[in-house]
Amino acid sequence: MIKLTDVTKKYGTKTALEQVNLTLSKGKLIGLVGENGSGKSTTLKLIAGLNHPTNGEITVNGEKVTRKIASSVSYLSELDEYYRFFTVKDAIEFQASQFADFDMEKAYEIMKFMKLDPEKKLKHLSKGNRGRVKIVLTLGRNAPVVLMDEPFSGLDPMVRNSIVKGLISFVDLEKQLILITTHEVMEVENILDEIVAIKDGSIIAHDNVDDIRKENEQSIVDWMTEIYE
Amino acid sequence: MSAWLALTKKEFRLGFPVFITALILYAGMMVGAYFLGKQINHEEAIMMTAFTIVIALHVLFLVFYLYYTLSSERKRLHLWLHTPMSIAELLLSKLFTGIVFMAITFIVSLSVAAMFFNQHFDFFNEQTIFNIMGLSTITVFNGAIWLAVTFVFFWSIFLTFSQRINDFFSFILTFILFLIIGWIYSLILSIGFVETITTWGPINVGDILVGFEFGYMDNAFEANTLSETSIFYIGHFIRDLIVTIIMFFAACWMIDRKVEV
């Protein structure tokens, strides 16, 4: 479903991704993990068509990625920037107007789950609640590919766990592929199907989470510690 | 189309502060001119100057509007560019809202000015008002749209540079490029062949208003209009239109292909 072939991304003289080959298939919740500056966000932006590879090719469902892939890719940025004059309801309605696959009913359901006030302006929300709005807007779409860059950063640790668990009920794993970058590996490892580890712009591991647990008899954090050593 | 309309509604909200600022600025200038004129006993002359400045300032409105709104989007390119819509649609939405805001302040300013002139100057008649309104509308909107598209073109160049170098050097490089392109463009226009193929379709416009004549007679302010017959060429208009369209689509191409989040 998502295929990166020999993808290299350079920013000036700095190489963010080096000859990356990666194939991700649909119906899975995949975690993309790595240290800061390892190339996680760049990978997501490249798949979303918001950055352009220096070399190589990226396809989503066989279609070469350009900016217009946005019609089949739902992207959540790590940045805390939205149109602050919008209320939560305005933001949902705006997103619905821009994407044909936006499911209003589902979005309101997620909004309620996130305990957000639809009438509240985004500029009056806490950082954590703005993060929740981003999740509502991203998961409100029934896009075949959902990319979430650090969706849990800024969320209160006390509710993070329940939000992570709740997310799974708003994802249609028959039809969707969810790719999440996160530092909160411990909190998401129970919902992940696969994990991709990235280091210095190269993929160093791509494994099935159950296999890691059963065959290696390791938790994901232990597995990560081992491969990053 | 409904996606574009919803986007345009968002643009109205995003650009609203520029509209309000312009309204306050124009109103402030007029009110200020009124009180200053009363104080120094030259109310008509000061008001006339203020109205002329306010109308002329509209030429710059779209550029300021686009500067504000595009700068806002620059902070959230991941939202603005994450859409299946083309860049042309995104930019046209901004241009459209800017023109609507500009039209509102322009109509208000022009109407107030026309009422004031009508009350204070006897040379004003229906013909003169029509002449002034028509000419200032065409001149101001034509100039504002041309400047706005030129701004978008160079903004997209600036944004492309800023992907690799810092904002200060991006600005310097863009400014140098602006001077070079402007110089090359004026050279091209002065080529005899270019002048020949663009100077066609003359339209004679008689008694077109080209200015005002002010003076004081017996301590009273006097004003008259200056008119002359001018020739406009459709070829020049088409030439400018083509250049504007090329700049617009070149800007779209750069934002689409060169700008990253």
TrEMBL record, chain A:
Q: Where is the ABC transporter domain?
A: 2-225
Which Pfam family, an example, fits this chain? ABC_tran
Q: Name one GO molecular function term.
A: ATP hydrolysis activity
- Which of UniProt's keywords are assigned here? ATP-binding, Nucleotide-binding
Q: Which domain of life is it from?
A: Bacteria
Identify this protein by name: ABC transporter ATP-binding protein YhcG
TrEMBL record, chain B:
The protein's name = Uncharacterized protein
Where exactly are the transmembrane stretches of this chain? 12-36, 48-70, 91-117, 129-161, 168-194, 231-255
Write down the superkingdom of origin.
Bacteria
For this UniProt record, the keywords arranged alphabetically read as follows: Membrane, Transmembrane, Transmembrane helix
From what organism does this protein derive? Oceanobacillus indicireducens
